[in-house]
Recover the amino acids of this structure.
């Protein structure tokens, strides 16, 4: 890779090299499927179930950013949605595809960094992110918001789950500037109700609330110290 800086994008790429957790990291993370990782279970996030049951999200074309082993993508497809599910890790996409094949569900799994997606404007009725956003470095935040806006149809909806700031499971309590002083996201950044509303201020806020805790085993996933948000373009 050339190390010359001529454009703003060159600066972003340089900062990516400092902070982005590379593909081999995530491949290793997902390699052992028996690890005691809460979201390795095959159950959708409780908030997406709530959205569909309350008719806040309807069946349509869905993009999932950072789909992991596919538990939410499988839920969307099972509801009758047309699903594009993206992840950086080929290892987790293999696992997700095995789950989809076993359930006889059709999902278009895409092996890419989310910022490398070539999306036609206004393609999706619903964009979902479960645990990807808090691994996005501050310098990519504007690009992320623009990606979501571009992907959504008019009146389309976007939802996410992310670390609560200072939570037990993650949610680093550091400023954006401190990220670069430390050259680390500290395992994932934490957010508050106020910060999510500010970051996604270009979208209409429908709901920002704590994730409901779901005792396992269950057909839904919910853990403490996560925030959920639902927004509309």
């Amino acid at each position: 890779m050339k190390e010359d800086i001529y454009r703003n994008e060159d600066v972003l790429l340089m900062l990516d090299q400092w902070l982005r957790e590379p593909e081999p990291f995530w491949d290793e993370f997902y390699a052992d499927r028996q690890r005691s990782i809460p979201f390795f279970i095959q159950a959708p996030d409780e908030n997406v179930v709530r959205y569909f049951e309350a008719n806040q999200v309807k069946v349509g074309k869905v993009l999932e950013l950072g789909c992991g082993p596919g538990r939410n993508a499988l839920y969307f497809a099972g509801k009758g949605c047309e699903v594009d599910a993206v992840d950086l890790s080929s290892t987790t996409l293999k696992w997700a595809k095995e789950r989809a094949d076993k359930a006889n569900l059709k999902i278009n799994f895409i092996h890419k960094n989310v910022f490398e997606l070539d999306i036609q404007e206004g393609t999706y009725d619903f964009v979902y992110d479960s645990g990807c956003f808090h691994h996005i470095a501050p310098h990519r935040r504007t690009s992320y918001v623009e990606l979501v806006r571009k992907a959504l149809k008019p009146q389309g909806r976007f939802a996410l789950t992310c670390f609560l700031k200072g939570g037990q499971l993650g949610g680093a309590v550091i400023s954006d500037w401190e990220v670069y002083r430390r050259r680390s996201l500290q395992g994932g950044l934490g957010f508050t109700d106020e910060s999510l509303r500010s970051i996604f201020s270009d979208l209409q806020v429908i709901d920002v609330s704590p994730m409901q805790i779901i005792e396992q085993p269950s057909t839904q996933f919910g853990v403490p110290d996560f925030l959920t948000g639902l927004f509309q373009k």
About this structure: The radius of gyration is 17 Å. The chain has one domain: 50-232.
